Amino acid sequence: MFSSVKESLGLGGGDGGSDRTEDAEELLERYAEMLQAHLVEKGRWEQVRIAYQE
Predict the structure, then answer these.
(1) Among 26, 28, 30, 53, which is most exposed with the fewest C-beta within 10 angstroms?
(2) Which residues of 1-54 form beta strands (DSSP E)?
(3) Is 1 helix (H, G, I), strand (E, B) or coil?
């Protein structure tokens, strides 16, 4: 898993190419979804959402 993360960020081996940006965006989207789910589970999502709006 960490090697795929490193490759997505352009830090690992491999040719990278134009797919690197798309991979990084997909990784970021998955992370954001998981973070939101975690915050909802812990009852902190509303607090974070309000803080962001301020």
Answers:
(1) 53
(2) none
(3) coil
